[in-house]
Each structure stands twice: as C-alpha cells, then as structure tokens.
Amino acid sequence: MKRTVLPFLLLLAAACGPRYGMRVPDKLVEKLPYESRIELLESENDLALAIDKVDEASNELLRARDSIRRAKARQSAARDEESRAPDEASREVAKLAIEESKARVEYLRAKQRVNVGLRDVEQLSLRCAFARFELARLQAARKAKVQGSEKLDPKKFEDQVSRCETKVKEERAELAEDSAQEKTAREAWEVKKTALAKKTFDARASPYVEIL
Predict the structure, then answer these.
(1) What pLDDT shows up at residue 47?
(2) pLDDT at 209
(3) Largest distance between two CA atoms of the chain
(4) CA–CA dist 146, 194 (Å, integer)
(5) Structure confidence at residue 207 (pLDDT)
(6) Where do the structural domains in the chain lie, given as residue ranges?
(7) 147 in the Ramachandran plot: left (φ > 0), alpha (ψ -120 to 50) or beta?
(8) What's the CATH fold of domain 6-199?
(9) Contacts of 17 (CB under 8 A, 6+ apart)
(10) Per residue, what are the HEC states of the chain?
(11) Helices 6-16 and 88-143: crossing angle, nearest 10°?
C-alpha cells in the first residue's frame, strides 16, 4: 500500500468504530500472495482519491472562511466611506457599496453552508471507500484461500458498503435546499455588484467590488 495512504487508513480504522468500520484482520491480508495484493491496487487508489476529496473539501472551508472575513472587512470600510463622504455622489456610491458587501456576506455564508455539507458527504464517502477496500481485501483473501478468511461473511461486508453508499446518496440529496439558497444568494449579490459597478464605471477598477 502507498505510504501516503497507510497512516491515514490506520487512523480511519480507529475512528470508524461501529459505523462502516468492519475490517478484515491484517494477519489474513499479510498472507496474501503477491498477485493477490496487486488486485487490491484499484481499491487502494479509490481510497487515496477519497482522502484527497476530503482534504480539498476541508481546504475549501478554510478558503471560504477567509473570504467571509475579507467581505466583512470591506463592509466595515464601506460604512466608514459613507460617514466620510464629502458629497452626495460619494455618499451614494458608499451606500451601494454597503448593500453590495451585505449581499456578498450573505452569499458567502450560504456557500459555506454548502461547503460544510459537501465536506460531511466527502467524509462519509471516505468511509464508503474504506468499506469497499475491506470488502476487496476479504474477496482477495477468500480467492487465495487464506486460512481463516472462510470465517468472515462476505454478505456482511457487502451490506456495509451498500448501507454506506445509500447514506451518501441521501446526504447528497439533502444538500439540494442549501444549494438552491446559495444560488439565490449569489444572484442577489450579482445584482448589487452590477449596480455598484455601473455607478463606479468598472467593477475591476472599483475599490469596493471584490471579484470572487
């Protein structure tokens, strides 16, 4: 197994507990012949990909958190601009900037709710990849007639995979409402951003508009 996957797999096995955490004893896998171990590569790659997706989902959460912090700072700056505006035209621009920044924060918060849901789904998907990996290990052990593998019931491992994958589908479906709210919030922000950009002639040149 790849060195990058093995430490994470051991941690995952400890964390899974009773939820999709049924394992094939390592002592059985250690008895597999080389050609049987090669057959496990696809499941190992699937597991590594699932780990990468969890990492990316977690990184997206951090990026969105930074975006929200910047958006709040720009909102505060826009309020300061309004209080210091020397004339009505400048005050109007500042007010539009405040409205745009409020809409941006609302959109980013809606997006973050989706990000949290996606992170949770990817974490569950990782458990499913782990369950598929354990099923593959058992199938390889039984195919190679490793002593002791006959005591493990393949149906239980198959059921573990099935239950996990069903749960992933359910959780993905539950993201639909949050995704719809994100879309609505983004559209509302785009309207405010466009209004501000028109008032300042060009969004790219505006000190108020941040392009996400």
Answers:
(1) 94
(2) 52
(3) 86
(4) 67
(5) 46
(6) 6-199
(7) beta
(8) Substrate Binding Domain Of Dnak; Chain:A; Domain 2 (1.20.1270)
(9) none
(10) CCCCCHHHHHHHHHHHCCCCCCCCCHHHHCCCCHHHHHCCHHHHHHHHHHHHHHHHHHHHHHHHHHHHHHHHHHHHHHHHHHHHCCCHHHHHHHHHHHHHHHHHHHHHHHHHHHHHHHHHHHHHHHHHHHHHHHHHHHHHHHHCCCCCHHHCCHHHHHHHHHHHHHHHHHHHHHHHHHHHHHHHHHHHHHHHHHHHHHHCCCCCCCCCCCCC
(11) 90
Ranges of the chain whose pLDDT falls below 50: 1-3, 6, 10, 14-17, 203-207
CB 88, CB 114: distance < 8 Å: no
CB-count exposure of residue 88 (10 Å: 0-12, 13-18, 19+) = exposed
Reported as a single tens digit per residue, the pLDDT across 85-110 is 888 888 888 899 999 999 999 999 99
